[in-house]
Amino acid sequence: ETGVTQTPRHLVMGMTNKKSLKCEQHLGHNAMYWYKQSAKKPLELMFVYNFKEQTENNSVPSRFSPECPNSSHLFLHLHTLQPEDSALYLCASSQDQGAGNIQYFGAGTRLSVL
Amino acid sequence: AQSVTQLGSHVSVSEGALVLLRCNYSSSVPPYLFWYVQYPNQGLQLLLKYTTGATLVKGINGFEAEFKKSETSFHLTKPSAHMSDAAEYFCAVSDTSGTYKYIFGTGTRLKVLA
Predict the structure, then answer these.
(1) How far apart are CA A85 and CA A114, in angstroms?
(2) Collapsed DSSP state (helix, strand, coil) of residue B35
(3) Distance from C-alpha of A26 to C-alpha of A3, rounded to nearest angstrom
(4) How open is the CA angle A48-A92-B96, to the nearest 5 degrees?
(5) Which of A12, A26, B24, B35 is most deeply packed, by most CB within 10 A?
(6) Sign of CA dihedral A63, A108, A75, A31
(7) What is the pLDDT of residue A1?
(8) Does A108 contact B103 at a Cβ distance shorter than 8 Å?
(9) B22 with B74: CB under 8 angstroms?
């Protein structure tokens, strides 16, 4: 248990569906991250939030829409996804955005887009 | 730009044998360095990190890594493999000032043979 909880753990959706991924951290951290993990590729940073403000959007398509209502919760809203979006989506948090801060990861949501 | 290379996407060792997972980085200045482990159906868990000071870093589960500036390497070792070490291992780097981004390698899947 890392203190970062992601739900759901598995999600299957059609290309026309709308769904949301949820991340909650119980560590008192101020920074939260979304990563995409695809087979045989490095983890791809998608979004970063620091004190609820988005500080990074790594050229992510608009069909992915993040939301950070407070420092403990992070959402990823999904709509009209493509099959190539199937991947493991990982949430992480760190004390702040300072260099060298340890990032703590959730177990991820395994997303399959049909 | 920084980059991380993990040599060998798959490594197999016998139980009780030495584990050596290789990581080389490319950076204009020595970065902070991390090793993470990912067990099946779980998120990433920090094994160890190097920031400054002693170049031999000890981590959890008997793992250690040595920062070698001259070789731009941060290889992960464990003297005696255990079946429970079977997992995927990721090397990551981050800048030492100002930024928060981790750059991850593509991972090495370790298989431990009985």
Answers:
(1) 10
(2) strand
(3) 5
(4) 70
(5) B35
(6) negative
(7) 61
(8) no
(9) no
Torsion of CA B37, A64, A93, A102, to 10 degrees: 50
| A23 beta partners | A6, A74
Amino acid (1-letter code) at residue B12: S
- Extract the tokens encoding B102: 């981790």
Cα–Cα nearest to B102, from B111, B110, B91, B113: B91
Distance of CA B74 to the CA centre of its chain: 7
The partner residue sitting opposite A43, judged by closest CB among B96, B100, B104, is: B104
Residue B98 Cα, gap to closest chain A Cα (Å): 6
Least Cα separation, residue A15 to chain B (angstroms): 24
Q: Are A107 and B43 in contact (CB under 8 A)?
A: yes
Residues of chain B under the 50 pLDDT cut? none
Chain B residues in contact with A46 by the CB 8 A cut-off are none
Q: Please check whether residue A91 is in contact with residue A6, taking contact to mean a CB–CB distance below 8 angstroms.
A: yes
Distance from CA of B26 to the nearest CA of A (A): 15
- Name the residue facing B97 among A2, A56, A99 (closest C-beta): A99
- The tens digit of pLDDT for each residue in A29-80 reads 999 999 999 987 889 999 999 998 988 888 999 999 999 999 999 999 999 9
